[in-house]
From TrEMBL:
GO terms for biological process: cobalamin biosynthetic process; methylation; siroheme biosynthetic process. It comes from Alteraurantiacibacter aestuarii. Keywords: Cobalamin biosynthesis, Methyltransferase, Porphyrin biosynthesis, S-adenosyl-L-methionine, Transferase. SUPFAM superfamilies: Tetrapyrrole methylase. PROSITE patterns: SUMT_1 (PS00839), SUMT_2 (PS00840). It is an enzyme of class 2 (transferase). This is uroporphyrinogen-III C-methyltransferase. The gene is cobA.
């Protein structure tokens, strides 16, 4: 391993370069080779040194630039050749980022691997939208689910969302109709409030709200595109009420002046 390079699995956070960790920014700025996902904002890639090799392995639904097995092989091959590799991922490498698979491949090949955590998409997007994933009065349990997981309809989602719980669904835009149907079939009320956060923590972020039953229509009508998160739970309704009340108070104050 002494002559081998190191594979750094680096979380790029939800979008903005301002939300990178100091460690991530330093690695990006010094790396000679960066293998990055399609969700990594161009602003972050601009931090790379001018002579750095940038390799995109962007994944989209039903169309991958490179299969995951090939990505793992690329990382290991470059490290065995003595090159340090920054594997740059949106959000956090170990939350729906396939970082676990890449770490396993590196360890199996005897290559040193280091994980640099990032602000997850759920944390970053919810914070930017001022939606608390937990709230002392409304939610003490948070669950993360992949909306494009295999066997979606066969899984039991009962109890994942409801009173005192928050459900965050990654990669759920294309399967929004199945998700809504699945949750209601497993017992969740059709009027359960939710928020769809598109391009969370970025300049073009949108936050759309509605009841669970209207999720498919909301996504279609507003032409929601990835990256987007679906947050389901009373916390989305609570923050909406607070923001409306705050806006009303501010408006009254301005009128009185």
């Amino acid at each position: 391993m002494e002559n081998h390079g190191t594979i750094y699995l680096v979380g790029a956070g939800p979008g903005s370069a301002d939300l990178l960790t100091v460690r991530a920014a330093r690695l990006i700025g010094s790396a000679r080779l960066i293998v990055h996902d399609g969700l990594v904002d161009p602003e972050i890639l601009q931090l790379a040194r001018p002579d750095a090799r940038l390799i995109s392995v962007a994944k989209q639904r039903a169309r991958h630039t490179m299969a995951q097995e090939d990505i793992c092989a690329l990382l290991v091959r470059e490290a065995l050749a003595g090159h340090d590799v920054v594997r740059l991922k949106g959000g956090d490498p170990f939350i729906f980022g396939r970082g676990g698979e890449e770490a396993e491949a590196a360890n199996a090949a005897g290559v040193r691997v280091e994980v640099v955590p990032g602000i997850s998409a759920a944390n970053g997007a919810a914070a930017a939208a001022q939606i608390p994933l937990t709230h002392r009065d409304h939610s003490s349990i948070v669950t993360f689910v992949a909306g494009q997981c295999k066997g979606l309809t066969e899984q039991n989602w009962a109890g994942l969302a409801g009173q005192g719980r928050t459900l965050v669904i990654y990669m759920g835009v294309k399967t929004a109709p199945q998700i809504a149907e699945k949750l209601m079939a497993d017992g969740l009320a059709p009027d359960m409030p939710l928020a769809v956060i598109e391009n969370g923590a970025r300049a073009n972020m949108r936050v759309l709200r509605g009841p669970l039953a209207a999720l498919p229509d909301l996504v279609e009508r507003e032409r929601v595109k990835s990256p987007a998160l679906i947050v389901i739970g009373e916390v989305t309704a609570e923050v909406t009420a607070q923001l409306i009340e705050k806006a009303a108070i501010q408006t009254i104050g301005v009128m009185q002046q």
